[in-house]
Design brief:
Chain lengths: ~500, ~230
C-alpha cells in the first residue's frame, strides 16, 4: 500500500544549465526540501512555496509551480476537501495550520468604498496642510471640566481626562504575537519599530523577554489564561495590560505551544520549565462572568498602579452585548479580532468556520456602545486581516479608534504566507525558534521595514482624510456616512449602518 | 485601603494588622518584599495576594475566591475555609488553608526554576482540584471538614502535565482525570511531603502525627505532553 494518497502541492523545478551548484537553496530551505549530491535535488512533497530559496538563488534558476494534477471536477467535493479526508484518514488527528483563514468568504471591506469631496466641500491637501493622525487609547471622561490656570485663564481639568490614555502617533499598532510563536528577533523588530513610530507592540501571551524591557512604554503586555510570564515586574513594564479572552482565528479556543518549542530562552520568558507543554485554555478559570472579568480588570489595575487595561475578544455573534459588558466592567479598550485574523497555530476547522467578519463586529460594537451612551468609556481596537491603509480607514469609519496589524507586519519581515507557521520551520526565521533560522531576521533591518510599512500606510491615511475633507483621524471615527456599500445585501448594509452606493 | 497598605510599607512598616476586615478586595495584590507581613482579622474579599511576590499574609477568619492568584512568592495562611480558584496559575510561594476549599483549586499551578508553589488545604475540596496543573505541590487533607460528600470532587488533575498532588486518604477512579497516574505515596514521597506538613501543622496548631496517621495517595501526570498526539500538520 502507498503510505500516502496525497500528492505534492508544488513542484520545484531547477534549471540545471543555469545552476551554480552553490548549495544555497539547501541552506536556505527551512522545510528540508533539498538534498545535495553534486547538485541540488528537491523533494517536492516538502515544499510550501515560501520562496526563500527562490529569493536567495544567485542564478535565478528555481521555479516553483502549482502541481496541477487533474482531479475530476466536483463542485461539491473540492480538491482540498478530498485531500483533507485522505490526510485525516492517515493520521487520525485534528488538522493544525498557521496564518489566517484562506477561504473565499465575502470580504466586506472590499465591498465598501469611501466617499470624497468635490466642489462645495473642498478636499484638503495633506502635503500642505497639517493632518492629524494622533489617537488616544483609553477611557475618556463623561464630561470635561475646566479649572483656573492661575493666570486669569482656564485649562482643562486633569488634562482633559486623557491623562492615563496612551498617545499613539498613528492609529496603527502591532497585533499580539507571542514570543514562542514568533522569534525573539521578530519581537525586537516590533518593539524597536513601535518606539520609532510612537505606537505599540503587544507581547501576546508569551511574556516579555528581558531584552525588551527598555521598550516598555511602547508595549502592551498580555495576560492570558495560562498566565505565562505574568509577574508583578511584567505588569509594571508595560504601558497597558490586555486580558486575552479570545482570538479571531480561533474563537473559543486556547493556545498550546508544544514542549519542543520551549527552549531555554522561551522558558525563561514564559517562566515555565524547558520542554513542557505551554497550555493556555480558552477560559480563564477565574473568569466565568462579567463580574469575574471586572474582578480581574481591577486586580490588574491594583497590581500595576492603575494602568489602562483592555480586553481582547474574537468577533462572534452578540459581540455588541459582550463588548458593552466589558466596557461596563471597567476596560479601557476593547480589542476586536475578526474572522480572518492570523495565528501561529489553530485547528483549520475552527480557523475557517468559527467567528464573524470583523467589519460587522466593529459596526455593531460601536453602535451598541453609542446607544448605551458609553462609547466614550473605551477605545476600540480592530484587527483580523487589516491588509492595507484602505482597510484601516474603513475600519475607523465603521467605528474603530485604532487598527492592529499582525500578518501584514510579518509580511514586512519577509513572510510569504506559506501557512506553515505551526511547524516551527519558517524559512524566513519568523515563526520558529531554531537558531539557524531566527538569525535571518536582523532586528535593525526588521524595525526599518516595519517603520516603512506603517509610515507608508499613515501617509495613505492622510491622503484618504484629505480626500474626505477632514483633517484629523478622530473626525473619521464612526463616520459611516462617508462609506458606501457596493454589492452588499440590504440587511448587511443595515447592520453596518452604511447606505448602498448611489444613495 | 490597599493604597494605604502600600504607603505604610514604603514608609518602612514591617507588619500591618487589619482589624474588622469585611470583604475588602485585593489585599496584598501585587505587593512585593520578603520581610513584610499583613495580619487580617475578619473576612477579606477576592483576589487576596494576587501577583504577590514575597510578603506573608495571615488571615484569622475565612477567605473568599482567588487567594494567591498568579502569585510569585510569599506565604498565605488562612485559619478558616476559602472559596474557589485558589492558587490559579501560582508560580511560587505557599498557600495554607485550614478548612474546606471550593471548586477549581490549584488550577494551572506551575513551577519555574527555584520557584515551586505549595498549597495545602486542610478540609475537603470540590471539583477540578489541580486541573491543568503544570508544576508544584498540591495537598488535600480532609480534616475537620464541614462539607457533605466525598473528600474531593470529580475531574481531579484533569489535563495535569506537571507537579504532584497528595491526597490524605483514597480517591476513586471516577474522580480522576485520565491524564493522571494514581499511586500510594511511598517512603520517598513522604520524605518530600513531611517537612511541608510539619510547617503547615506548626502554622495551624495541628498535630503532625495525627495528620500522618492516614496513608496518602499520590497523583502525578502520566505524560508531560498530554496533547502531543492530538494534531496532524496541514
Ligand atoms: S541556490 Fe540556485 S544556483 Fe545555488 S544550488 Fe540552489 S538552485 Fe543551484
Ligand atoms: S511566518 Fe513563515 S511559516 Fe508562517 S506563513 Fe509566513 S513564511 Fe510561512
Amino acid at each position: 500500500m502507498p503510505t500516502s494518497l496525497i500528492q505534492p502541492e508544488f513542484l520545484v523545478e531547477i534549471d540545471y544549465d543555469k545552476c551554480h551548484k552553490c548549495g544555497r537553496c539547501v541552506q536556505q530551505c527551512g522545510w528540508g526540501v533539498y538534498s545535495f549530491n553534486e547538485r541540488p535535488f528537491p523533494d517536492d512533497s516538502k515544499c510550501r512555496a515560501c520562496h526563500r530559496c527562490v529569493t536567495y538563488c544567485p542564478a535565478h534558476c528555481i521555479k516553483i509551480k502549482k502541481n496541477d494534477l487533474a482531479l475530476r471536477d466536483n463542485a461539491n467535493w473540492s480538491p482540498e476537501l478530498r485531500k483533507n479526508v485522505w490526510r485525516q484518514a492517515e493520521s487520525g488527528g485534528v488538522m493544525l495550520t498557521g496564518m489566517g483563514n484562506d477561504k473565499p468568504y465575502l470580504k466586506i471591506f472590499d465591498h465598501l468604498v469611501l466617499d470624497a469631496c468635490q466642489v462645495t466641500n473642498p478636499s484638503i491637501d495633506p502635503l500642505r496642510e497639517p493632518m492629524e493622525l494622533r489617537t488616544y487609547l483609553g477611557r475618556k471622561p463623561d464630561s470635561v471640566g475646566v479649572e483656573s490656570n492661575g493666570k486669569g485663564g482656564y485649562k482643562l481639568k486633569d488634562g482633559g481626562g486623557v491623562s492615563n490614555n496612551i498617545k499613539l502617533d498613528t492609529p496603527i499598532i502591532f497585533s499580539p504575537m507571542s514570543y514562542g510563536s514568533v522569534s525573539l528577533n521578530v519581537h525586537k523588530s516590533l518593539a524597536m519599530a513601535a518606539e520609532r513610530l510612537g505606537i505599540l507592540m503587544n507581547t501576546g501571551e508569551g511574556g516579555l523577554h528581558a531584552d525588551l524591557y527598555p521598550y516598555g512604554k511602547n508595549v502592551i503586555v498580555q495576560v492570558a489564561s495560562g498566565r505565562f510570564g505574568v509577574s508583578p515586574e511584567y505588569l509594571n513594564r508595560g504601558a497597558a495590560i490586555e486580558i486575552k479572552v479570545g482570538q479571531g482565528a480561533k474563537p473559543g479556543i486556547g493556545g498550546h505551544l508544544p514542549g519542543e518549542k520551549i527552549n531555554k530562552e522561551v522558558s525563561t520568558t514564559r517562566m515555565i520549565p524547558q520542554g513542557s507543554d505551554a497550555i493556555s485554555p480558552a477560559p480563564h478559570h477565574d473568569i466565568y462572568s462579567i463580574e469575574d472579568l471586572r474582578q480581574l480588570i481591577y486586580s490588574l489595575k491594583e497590581a500595576s498602579g492603575y494602568k489602562p487595561v483592555g480586553v481582547k475578544i474574537a468577533a462572534v455573534h452578540n459581540v455588541g452585548a459582550i463588548a458593552s459588558g466589558i466596557v461596563r466592567a471597567g476596560a479601557d479598550y476593547v480589542y476586536l479580532d475578526g474572522f480572518s485574523g492570523g495565528t501561529g497555530a489553530a485547528p483549520a476547522i475552527i480557523r475557517d468556520h468559527v467567528g464573524i467578519p470583523l467589519e460587522i463586529a466593529i459596526a455593531v460594537v460601536d453602535q451598541r456602545l453609542r446607544d448605551e451612551g458609553i462609547r466614550n468609556q473605551a477605545s476600540i481596537i480592530a484587527a483580523g486581516s487589516i491588509r492595507s491603509s484602505a482597510d484601516a480607514a474603513k475600519a475607523i469609519a465603521l467605528g474603530a479608534d485604532v487598527v492592529a496589524i499582525g500578518s501584514a507586519s510579518l509580511m514586512a519581515l519577509g513572510c510569504h504566507l506559506c501557512q506553515g507557521c505551526h511547524t516551527g520551520c519558517c524559512s524566513w526565521g519568523l515563526t520558529t525558534q531554531k537558531p539557524e533560522l531566527t538569525r535571518r531576521v536582523d532586528p535593525e533591518w526588521g524595525a526599518e521595514r516595519l517603520t516603512n510599512l506603517v509610515n507608508a500606510w499613515s501617509h495613505e491615511l492622510q491622503e484618504i482624510l484629505g480626500a474626505l475633507g477632514v483633517n484629523a483621524v478622530e473626525s473619521l471615527r464612526g463616520s459611516r456616512e462617508r462609506l458606501r456599500a457596493v454589492g452588499l445585501d440590504q440587511q448587511t448594509c443595515e447592520i453596518l449602518g452604511v447606505k448602498p452606493a448611489g444613495l | 485601603m490597599n493604597a494605604s497598605i502600600r504607603a505604610a510599607f514604603e514608609d518602612g512598616a514591617k507588619t500591618i494588622v487589619l482589624n474588622y476586615v469585611n470583604g475588602q478586595r485585593y489585599i496584598g495584590t501585587g505587593l512585593h518584599g520578603r520581610d513584610l507581613r499583613i495580619e487580617v482579622h475578619g473576612t477579606p474579599g477576592q483576589d487576596m495576594a494576587m501577583f504577590m511576590d514575597g510578603p506573608t499574609l495571615e488571615v484569622f477568619g475565612n477567605a473568599q475566591d482567588g487567594v494567591g492568584n498568579t502569585m510569585n512568592s510569599g506565604k498565605v495562611i488562612v485559619h478558616g475555609s476559602a472559596g474557589d480558584v485558589l492558587g490559579y496559575g501560582m508560580r511560587g510561594g505557599k498557600v495554607f488553608i485550614k478548612g474546606d476549599v471550593g471548586y477549581r483549586v490549584g488550577i494551572h499551578m506551575k513551577a519555574y526554576e527555584d520557584l515551586r508553589p505549595i498549597m495545602v488545604c486542610g478540609g475537603k475540596a470540590r471539583d477540578f482540584f489541580g486541573e491543568y496543573m503544570a508544576g508544584g505541590l498540591l495537598v488535600l487533607l480532609g480534616l475537620n471538614s464541614r462539607l457533605e460528600g466525598p473528600l474531593v470532587g470529580g475531574y481531579l488533575g484533569t489535563g495535569m502535565h506537571g507537579g504532584t498532588i497528595y491526597i490524605r486518604g483514597e480517591v476513586e477512579p471516577w474522580q480522576c482525570g485520565k491524564e493522571v497516574g494514581v499511586f500510594s505515596a511511598d517512603e520517598t514521597d513522604m520524605a518530600e511531603l513531611t517537612p511541608v506538613l510539619k510547617e503547615y501543622c506548626e502554622d495551624m496548631g495541628l498535630d503532625l502525627d495525627e495528620v500522618l496517621s492516614v496513608p496518602f495517595t499520590k497523583l502525578v501526570p502520566v505524560s508531560h505532553r498530554p496533547y502531543g498526539k492530538l494534531y496532524t500538520y496541514l
